Each structure stands twice: as structure tokens, then as C-alpha cells.
């Protein structure tokens, strides 16, 4: 009887801890929504304060850790800060695709190509072969001086995304900047066709 009572008390204690953890995560979620709204308004100090409150409520919640890392990236602090925060997610098994890509981006910003590659290699095979990872591979190739391979990698990545005007312009621009006459002419013709079809006003985000 005493053993049964002990087991019941232990189960109740575990259940209580779970309820408290979920309650704190629910409270933190509300703070994260407020922090995101403040960031979008450029109110960085206020957002930092709300994120700090969320961290006190649920310090190990993946969404809280992720929000802090994204804040660190957006305010452009030292990339080491975001790297350490994303690595917390990796260590506790809560890192998703976006987290690993952002970890790789932060490592690239720091200039550590090997660490960036390690972060990308944590992605599932299908995601590792995807266009977003390929674009980061291209940046690494470019930083390593492999400009031709980088351009090829970018073309491959762009060919896998939706064929909107901006993506087509990027592919055309890549061709246009190549030293080979035939490829250069092809890029020029593609950009000319885009302009004639009404897509001449391409946003500056399209320029690589």
C-alpha cells in the first residue's frame, strides 16, 4: 500500500511538473508574439526586454531559444551570440531546418567555412540537397575563390525554385556575367526578353 501510494505521488509530481512546464511555455508564447511585433516596428530595446521575460518563464522552450537567436541575427550583434544560441537548440534536439540554415549563415558571417559546412550537414538528406542549402554552398565556394563552381551551384539552386521573374532574372544575370561569349549573349537575351515582357523593373534583391 505504501509503495502504491509512493508511485501515485511520484506520478502526480511528474504530471504537475509537465503542467507547469506547459503553462510557462503558453505564457512565453504570448510574450514571443509581442516581441515579434516590437521587432517589426524596430523597437529593439522593448523587444529585448520582452524576450528576457519569456526566457525567465520558459528558459528551455525551443520557441523561446529560437526567438532569441533570431533577434540576435536581426539586430546584427556578433554572430557568435546567435551561433551559441542556435547550438543550444541543436544540443537539446530542438533545431529545425530554419535553425540549421541560420546557424550555417551565422558561421559564414563569422568566416568559419568548416563550421558552416558542419551545420548544413546536420540537415536531413532531402533538405541538404535543397536550394537554400545549395545557395549557402555557393557562398562558401565563392569565399574559397571557386567562382565558377559557385555560379554553377547558384544556377542549380535557382532552377529548383518557382520560375518567377526574379528567379529568371537571377539566372540571366549569372549568364550575363560569365566571360564566355555564348553564355554572356544568352544572359543578355534572357534579360532583354524579360524587359520586353514587362518584367524590366526587377527589385534590387535579385542582383547577386
Residue runs with pLDDT of under 50 for 5 or more positions: 10-14, 199-208
Individual helix count = 11
The overall average pLDDT, rounded, is: 79
- Overall shape: elongated
Helix and strand succession?
HHHHHHHHHHH
What value does the Rg take, in angstroms? 23 Å
Question: Approximately how much beta-strand content do the residues carry?
Answer: under 5%
Q: What share of the residues lie within helices? A: over 70%
By helix and strand content, what is the structural category?
mainly alpha
Oligomer: single chain
The largest pleated sheet is described as:
none
| Number of β-strand runs | 0
Q: How far is it from the N-terminal to the C-terminal residue, by CA?
A: 73 Å
Descriptive overview:
With 208 residues, this protein is mostly helical. Helix content is 78%, strand content 0%. The longest helix has 39 residues, at 2-40. It is elongated, with a radius of gyration of 23 Å. The model is unreliable at 10-14 and 199-208 (pLDDT under 50).
List keywords for this structure.
mainly alpha; 208 residues; 78% helix; single chain; 11 helices
Can I get a quick summary?
Helices cover about 80% and strands about 0% of the residues. The chain is an all-alpha fold.
What topology does this entry show?
Blueprint: H1 2-40, H2 44-57, H3 62-74, H4 79-91, H5 97-110, H6 113-120, H7 125-128, H8 131-143, H9 147-159, H10 165-176, H11 181-199
Helix pairs in contact: 1-2, 1-3, 2-3, 3-4, 4-5, 5-6, 5-8, 8-9, 9-10, 10-11
Amino acid at each position: 500500500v505504501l509503495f502504491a501510494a509512493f508511485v501515485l505521488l511520484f506520478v502526480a509530481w511528474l504530471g504537475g511538473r509537465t503542467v507547469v512546464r506547459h503553462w510557462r511555455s503558453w505564457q512565453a508564447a504570448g510574450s514571443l508574439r509581442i516581441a515579434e511585433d516590437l521587432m517589426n516596428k524596430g523597437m529593439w530595446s522593448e523587444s529585448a526586454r520582452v524576450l528576457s521575460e519569456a526566457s525567465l518563464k520558459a528558459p528551455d522552450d525551443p520557441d523561446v531559444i529560437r526567438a532569441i537567436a533570431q533577434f540576435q541575427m536581426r539586430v546584427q550583434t556578433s554572430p557568435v551570440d546567435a551561433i551559441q544560441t542556435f547550438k543550444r537548440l541543436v544540443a537539446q534536439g530542438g533545431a529545425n531546418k530554419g535553425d540549421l540554415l541560420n546557424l550555417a549563415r551565422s558561421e559564414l558571417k563569422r568566416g568559419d567555412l568548416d563550421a558552416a559546412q558542419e551545420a548544413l550537414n546536420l540537415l536531413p538528406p532531402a533538405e541538404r540537397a535543397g536550394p537554400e542549402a545549395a545557395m549557402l554552398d555557393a557562398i562558401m565556394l565563392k569565399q574559397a575563390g571557386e567562382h565558377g563552381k559557385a555560379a554553377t551551384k547558384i544556377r542549380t539552386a535557382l532552377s529548383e525554385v518557382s520560375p518567377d521573374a526574379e528567379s529568371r532574372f537571377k539566372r540571366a544575370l549569372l549568364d550575363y556575367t560569365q566571360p564566355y561569349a555564348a553564355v554572356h549573349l544568352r544572359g543578355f537575351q534572357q534579360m532583354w526578353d524579360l524587359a520586353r515582357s514587362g518584367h524590366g523593373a526587377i527589385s534590387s534583391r535579385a542582383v547577386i
